[in-house]
Amino acid sequence: MTKIFLLVLLAVVCTSHVLGAEDDLYVNITILESATAQGGVCLNGSPPAYHLHRGHGTGLRSWIIHLDGGGWCNSISDCLNRSATFLGSTKMMYQQGFFAGILHNTSKHNPEFHNWNRVRVKYCDGSSFIGDVEQVHPENKLYFRGARIFTAIMDDLRSKGMKNAENAILTGISAGGLATILNCNKFKC
Ligand SMILES: *[C@@H]1O[C@H](CO)[C@@H](O)[C@H](O)[C@H]1NC(C)=O
Ligand SMILES: *[C@@H]1O[C@H](CO)[C@@H](O)[C@H](O)[C@H]1NC(C)=O
Ligand SMILES: *[C@@H]1O[C@H](CO)[C@@H](O)[C@H](O)[C@H]1NC(C)=O
């Protein structure tokens, strides 16, 4: 997992600079309202989100799941501040996600995975998709539910076809790279 993460990081950094504007790919956000039923919510209690670009042809049954990064918040004050940004609230997220490198959909920019199902999971829990605290912080109404976000989004992707996957790669950058290691045992198709 560590090796995959490092490769991915380099691939994204190296190829994003050579993309011409005409090749830029932006994918609309999917807000997973249903995740709130199982308590899978961002720091501020809003539903989690991802961007999915469907695969086709020989990539129809292959999936690459990329977990976004963004460091951790490490105190209530820090997490409270974060809960009002795109790293803690769905409301503050861009509606479109930039897909470059291993997320791009042309063989020119992404020879290996261009026709796979490609997913960018938004990072909004502040701790690499591992928090699972039932209690909501009494004063600040903060939620630490990253593990439930991971479960809810993977369940949703399974229902959208990942359950029939022949190949699936879990990858991520920075705090999302760490999240791939921490959540690897839970990742299944
Ligand atoms: C993406 O969202 C925009 C704005 O809501 C919409 O106009 C467009 O049709 C959507 N694109 C796709 C591929 O769904
Ligand atoms: C949170 O934001 C407030 C107001 O801008 C600031 O005073 C405080 O230092 C911030 N807390 C952290 C941990 O950055
Ligand atoms: C890549 O995706 C864009 C947006 O969905 C689409 O217009 C374009 O045709 C796709 N290119 C290939 C090679 O599939």
TrEMBL record:
Keyword Transferase appears in the UniProt entry: no
Any single GO BP term: cell wall organization
Taxonomic superkingdom: Eukaryota
Localization (cell): Secreted, Cell wall
Pfam assignment, any one: PAE
Keywords attached to this entry: Cell wall, Cell wall biogenesis/degradation, Hydrolase, Secreted, Signal
Signal peptide annotation: 1-20
Record-listed E.C. numbers: 3.1.1.-
UniProt-recorded Gene Ontology molecular function terms: hydrolase activity
Known function: Hydrolyzes acetyl esters in homogalacturonan regions of pectin. In type I primary cell wall, galacturonic acid residues of pectin can be acetylated at the O-2 and O-3 positions. Decreasing the degree of acetylation of pectin gels in vitro alters their physical properties.
Similarity comment: Belongs to the pectinacetylesterase family.
Name of this protein: Pectin acetylesterase
Organism from which the protein derives: Solanum stoloniferum
